[in-house]
Amino acid sequence: MFPVDKRSVQCLWLSAPDAIPALCFALDDMPAELWRDAPDLDALADAVTPYLQRHGARRWDFIWSMERHFSEPYGPLPKAQQTFMAGIPDMFLGAADAVAPAAATRLEGVLAEQAHLNRVRLHSDVTVAAAPYQYEAGSELPAEHREWLEKLFFAHGECMIPYFGEEAKGIKSMYQDVDAALMEQAPDAASRLRFSNFTNEEYRHTFQFFSLYNAYDPALPRKIYEHEQKVFRAYMDFKTDGTWLDYGIFNMLADRLGTYQAFEWVQSSYAPLARVALKAVKDERGHGNMGYLHVRDFIEREGERGRGHVQQRIDNHFYPFHLAAFGSSSSANNRMWRKWGLKQHSNDALRAAYHAEMSLVLDSLGLKVPVFDDAYARGMEAATKLRKVARAGDAYA
Ligand SMILES: [Fe+2]
After folding, report:
1. Are 140 and 187 within 8 A, CB to CB?
2. Three-state DSSP class for residue 232
3. DSSP letter at 252?
4. How far is the CA of 45 from the centre of ligand 1 (A)?
5. CA 97 / ligand 1 centre spacing (Å)
6. Taking the CB of residue 295, how many other CB atoms lie within 10 A of it?
7. Distance, CA 3 to ligand 1 centroid (Å)?
8. Domain 91-389 is in which class?
9. Quick one: CA torsion of 310, 311, 316, 321, rounded to 10 degrees?
10. How far is the CA of 136 from the centre of ligand 1 (A)?
């Protein structure tokens, strides 16, 4: 008997940021017996193919949409095979228990290098002083742990500005205007649905992080909000050209980067953050997928000319920035966060893993993967220039 009930899927798919309405309509049509009798996901996908075809939905989209919501660690299905759409970042991190995606055998070099980095850096340059889930809100924290936990909260304030307290009345979301402008540009009903689901999910993150900070210290949400008004953030200086397509590329790259950022906290020594992080990793995967679908739609609509445009935007604008955004190789902050069990990997390890994953993403869209060393050097050069014009916060820590 197939371990996921069709009714659970019906509840989740349409409200996700990577919703594909054609899949949802096909799902509604599928007989429950057909669904229940399938021995595994591949067999189910074969059995439901006529229903997918009838509604213009794709088999591959069916598989990753199932795995994204119901694969380990989020559900009873085995670990995702569609790694860059449904997996979690450990598949690319090259750690001893990581699963190298079968489709990525040609990327062995990068993954092998990654495994080496992990062995050398993860375990030899710091002695970890706190275990996963060691501390709860209200625990007596060692002074240095407290200091670095608070630095982490402030360093990542940009993705979790707490609007939800009593004091937040009258404060507008920093993304409200850009979200409204993008909604007006959505090319079709499915895109508009996805974008609406996405903005709702970001508000939910704000609520989750507000609750986390509030439990740590009720004065903290306001302090982080005020800090964000003053601090320089490199990503704020990073501009899209305002079009729907550019924002799709941005989601495809930036929210995928967000999955790596949140994954660092899944084993956090501060348990309340660890609990939120596993949910956030899943959500960020969906945001990256939304970007992927919007870029895929664009290329399919616009043909080779469209593909050339996407390639040029990625090569010249997006890719260098995102490689640099993981921070410098020699970051002292990163070492202290690892010492206190607040992050797990070096910036280099995360950057290499992200590149391995992006290689699969771009390849699947018929795009070329930028040369790592060249893109990284250009990104760091741009980051250094930005630092000269503004006192850097922690965005490139
Ligand atoms: Fe996101």
Report:
1. no
2. strand
3. I
4. 29
5. 27
6. 27
7. 29
8. mainly alpha
9. 80
10. 26
Distance 252 CA to ligand 1 centre (A): 10
Distance between Cα 293 and ligand 1 center (Å): 15
Tell me how far the alpha carbon of residue 44 lies from the centroid of ligand 1, in angstroms. Answer: 30
Write down the domain spans for the chain.
6-81, 91-389
CA–CA dist 114, 96 (Å, integer): 11
Report the phi/psi class of residue 105: left, alpha or beta, with left for phi > 0 and alpha for psi in -120 to 50.
alpha
Q: How many CB atoms lie within 10 A of CB 366?
A: 12
Distance in angstroms (rounded) separating the CA atoms of residues 177 and 334: 33
Name the residues around ion ligand 1, CB cutoff 5 A. Answer: 255, 284, 287
Question: Sign of torsion, CA 373 114 265 135?
Answer: negative
Rounded distance between C-alpha atoms, residue 53 and residue 49, angstroms: 6
Please tell me the pTM assigned to this model.
0.90
Cis status of the peptide bond prior to 132, with omega within 30 of 0: no
Tokens of 364: 């699947």
Per-residue pLDDT of the chain (397 residues; tens, 9 = 90+): 999 999 999 999 999 999 999 999 999 999 999 999 999 999 999 999 999 999 999 999 999 999 999 999 999 999 999 999 999 998 888 643 333 333 343 444 444 454 555 555 555 678 999 999 999 999 999 999 999 999 999 887 655 565 677 777 787 777 888 899 999 999 999 999 999 999 999 989 888 998 999 999 998 988 888 887 777 666 666 788 999 999 999 999 999 999 999 999 999 999 999 999 999 999 999 999 999 999 999 999 999 999 999 999 999 999 999 999 999 888 899 999 999 999 999 999 999 999 999 999 999 999 999 999 999 999 999 888 876 655 444 443 3
**Residue 389 C-alpha to ligand 1 middle, in angstroms?**
28
Q: Which residues of 23-51 are buried (b: 16+ CB within 10 A; e: fewer)?
A: bbbbbeebeeeebeebeebeebbebbeeb
Q: How far apart are the CA of 284 and the centre of ligand 1, in A?
A: 5
